[in-house]
Amino acid sequence: MKKLLVLTPCIAILAACGGSGGAGGGSVALQPGMWETTVTFSNIEVPGVPEAQVAAMRQAMSRPQTRSECMTPEQAANPSGNMMNPGGQAGACQFSKSTFANGTIDVAGSCNAGGRGSLNMTMAGTYTPTTMTANVTTAVRPPAGTPGPQEVRMTGSLSARRTGDCPGGAAAGNSQ
Fold first, then answer.
1. Cα 53 from Cα 158, distance rounded (Å)
2. Which residue did the predictor score with more confidence, 88 or 121?
3. How many CB atoms neighbour CB 36 within 10 A?
4. How far is CA 70 from CA 38, 55, 123, in A?
5. Which pTM does this prediction carry?
6. In what order do the strands lie in the sheet with 104-112?
7. What span, in angstroms and rounded, lies between the C-alpha atoms of 70 and 72?
8. Checking DSSP bridges between strand 131-141 and strand 33-45, what pairing results, if any?
9. How many other CB atoms are found less than 10 A from the CB of residue 92?
């Protein structure tokens, strides 16, 4: 299950996409407040890893991964902030497609997870002021020279919904 740790940066980036991420273009009409984001992977491929280990990873990753986050009015008006800079790392992601407008999500890009490798991803879906759904594909690569699998490919779904107002005085970006 040690190889499962490679997936942690991917889940963090995808969760940021759901609650307060996206890419600009047009008017975004998300409502600020608490957003709950759930990512579920339906398929995982790890070339070069024995099928028994991949099956264990599939079982673990097929369970929904859920997190809650407070989205400020500023983030709701411009949701690209967190996705374009996950974890506050300026320039960490570069996007070839970045539509988050008129109820449509169509994003493709790659992110550098610092010393933890890289992630290529696509998201295609829809949103309303209080919900988001998207199909997600990712390819996670560890840093060069890391022993073990050199790529983990996953497909799945993301859903997010506004669950209410942020707790009084809660800072933006705090996970609950």
1. 25
2. 121
3. 18
4. 15, 34, 21
5. 0.72
6. 65-71, 33-45, 152-164, 131-141, 118-127, 104-112, 93-101
7. 6
8. unpaired
9. 19
